[in-house]
Amino acid sequence: MEKNIAVDNPVEYVENTPLFSILKVDPEEFDGVDLADLKLGKKGFKLLKKYGYNSLRDLLKATVSDLKSIKNMPIRSVQTVLPAIRQSLNMMKDNGFIIERVLKGYNGAGGDAVIPDGVTSVGEGAFWRCSTVTSITVPDSVASICPGVFYGCTSLKSIAVAPGNLVYHSAGNCLIETQSKTLVAGCKTGVIPADGSVTGIGLSAFEGCTGLRSITIPDGVTFIDGGAFAGCTGLASVAIGNSVTSICKGAFRDCTSLTSVTIPDSVTLIGDFAVNEFPDLTDGVFEGCTSLKSVTIPDSVTYIDDCTFLNCVSLTVINFAGTKEEWNDVIKGENWASGTGKYIVHCTDGDIE
Fold first, then answer.
1. Which single residue of 179, 244, 266, 268 has CA 20 to 30 Å from 105?
2. Which pTM was predicted?
3. In order of start, what are the domains of the chain with their CATH numbers?
4. Are 179 and 22 in contact (CB under 8 A)?
């Protein structure tokens, strides 16, 4: 099984490829299907009609570039065009039958799990706690995958995407959304590519990956989204690259083997809101990291969010790369260090106990 599959010139290819080709459907099957069935909003619907897209068939023959050229069109990228169309195609009436194209769950024997051809969307919790699955192959038809899809797949060590998939590819046993350069999911053997193909670690990407022992977040990655490594109880070593600017809420929550961490000086806020909106996410970045003994914080940091180090019972050392006055000026949220050990803050001009 090929482990590292990429798409040549992925952004240009997706932008200039008809939507029906990306979604692997025959546009003629949808002649007469009204655009009102799509979840585009009234403004998007009216604009499409104005520019001559009168049916779903017409829209499927367009390219993403075609749609982006429409003035004031609220749908501005493949990430928003495709989900809206997929949502309608996933359950479309055909001669009285409902065709279900969403993978909602897996209850197989484990081992190698090959998602069937024709599936266009992998739904929330589809592989939740499938602890016996060791490898997953994503076909070229899949164009939508929910965050945290492999949560609890503790034996998973191989993720591969079939050649020809225009939305996702795999590298380093990680699943990557090609155009946005977001790492969507990883596993215990996952290695984040350092070739520029990944600029963000997605929501809950490695959540519950208890077998992950160490991870390097390379330069080029700019954000670590909410819950990205939450519950990675075996994670003992993290190296965060100097291009990361956002470490979102709950990113390393309950990483109970983590003993130390260094925040790069590109970060100004510890505990940013999730990049991919998730309003219910309120956990502290390192909340529940019970083995965390020391943390190094740069003087670029101006805000430490609520509960950032909540219940980090072993935390005794905070190394701050600024003066005592600068540390006192850092805004600290409610319960930012509640339940920690008796820590000392080492500043450049002395200690604060």
1. 179
2. 0.73
3. 10-92 (1.10.150)
4. no
What pLDDT, in 10s, does the model give residues 122-131? Answer: 888 889 999 9
**SS3 state at 122:** strand
Per-10-residue mean pLDDT of the chain, 353 residues long, equals 31 66 76 63 70 81 79 54 63 43 82 88 87 94 90 95 94 95 96 96 94 97 94 97 94 97 94 60 89 97 94 97 96 93 94 94
Contacts of 295 (CB under 8 A, 6+ apart): 260, 261, 262, 263, 286, 309, 315, 317, 318, 319
- CA-CA distances (angstroms) from residue 215 to 153, 211, 241, 254? 18, 11, 11, 16
Structure tokens at 330: 């850092």
What count of other Cβ atoms lies within 10 Å of the Cβ of residue 115? 20
What single DSSP character describes residue 297?
A: E
- Could you give the CA distance from residue 222 to residue 238 in angstroms, rounded to a whole number? 15
The tokens for 257 are 């083997």
Eight-state DSSP code of residue 301: -
Q: For residues 308 and 285, is the Cβ–Cβ distance under 8 A?
A: yes
Report the alpha-carbon distance of residue 170 to residue 161 in Å, rounded: 5
Buried b (16+ CB within 10 A) or exposed e, 312-327: beebebbbbbbebebb
CA atoms within 13 A on the CB side of 172: 16
- Please, which residues bridge with residue 296 across strands? 262, 319
Pairs from 180-184 (Cβ < 8 Å, separation ≥ 24): 180/79, 184/145, 184/147, 184/149
CA count, 13 A, side-chain hemisphere, 294 = 8
